[in-house]
């Protein structure tokens, strides 16, 4: 498991500047911003989230049976305090950097714990709510063991791979949620856990 203090190796504890994020333009008005190592000492943040977040298992109906969701979940709505002050700093930095482009703050945080390479999430877009009809943004902070996030045009096509972990940030914007899909596939090569934190505006799930 990861070890260390938040301050080990650097005086920085909060997110680095978002000005270094690199944007990739996709088809159909979608784009992604990527910033590796956005959160310094992210392994310490991972350890705190692993122990402080009230992780829960869920079951969902799939076709004719109910199955376990292959990851653990937690959700913090607009009124809930985030589980770590670094996440408050991250949200504030995202709100400031994307204020003009997004036109509103990020409101909620959904957390996923991928315990090992057997945990995953299938192809999907965040299209419950406004994401189905309007341009929006979803910002994902990844801590822990890197996992591959895949993106592909909705309906199929060549996939783009981004390996995310250890404090990396990806922001999916424009039409990305309704014209593209993303997934975290299972991996026999991954043994360690990963936590993703998804910041979303109001009405986007």
UniProtKB/TrEMBL annotation:
Q: Which InterPro entries match?
A: AlkB-like (IPR027450), AlkB-like_sf (IPR037151), ALKBH3 (IPR032854), Oxoglu/Fe-dep_dioxygenase_dom (IPR005123)
Residue ranges of domain Fe2OG dioxygenase in the record = 105-203
Q: Which UniProt keywords apply?
A: Dioxygenase, Oxidoreductase
Q: Gene3D superfamilies in the record, alphabetically? A: Alpha-ketoglutarate-dependent dioxygenase AlkB-like (2.60.120.590)
What Pfam families would the database entry show?
2OG-FeII_Oxy_2
The Gene Ontology terms for molecular function here are:
dioxygenase activity
Q: Which GO terms describe its biological process?
A: DNA alkylation repair
User: What's the protein here called?
Assistant: Alkylated DNA repair dioxygenase AlkB
Q: What organism is recorded for this protein? A: Actinomadura mexicana
């Amino acid at each position: 498991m990861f070890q260390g203090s938040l301050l080990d190796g650097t005086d920085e504890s909060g997110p680095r500047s978002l000005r270094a994020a690199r944007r990739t333009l996709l088809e159909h008005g979608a784009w992604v911003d990527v910033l590796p190592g956005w959160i310094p000492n992210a392994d310490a943040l991972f350890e705190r989230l692993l122990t402080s977040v009230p992780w829960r298992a869920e079951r969902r109906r799939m076709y004719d049976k109910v199955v376990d969701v292959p990851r653990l979940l937690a959700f913090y709505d607009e009124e809930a305090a985030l589980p770590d002050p670094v996440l408050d700093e991250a949200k504030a930095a995202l709100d400031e950097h994307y204020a003009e482009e997004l036109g509103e703050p990020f409101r909620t945080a959904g957390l996923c714990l991928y315990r090992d390479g057997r945990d995953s999430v299938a192809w999907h877009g965040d299209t419950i709510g406004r994401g189905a009809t309007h341009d929006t943004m979803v910002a994902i902070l990844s801590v822990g063991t890197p996992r591959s996030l895949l993106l592909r045009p909705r309906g199929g096509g060549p996939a783009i791979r981004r390996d995310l972990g250890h404090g990396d940030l990806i922001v999916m914007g424009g039409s990305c949620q309704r014209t593209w899909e993303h997934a975290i596939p299972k991996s026999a090569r991954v043994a360690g856990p990963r936590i993703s934190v998804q910041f979303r505006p109001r009405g986007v799930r």
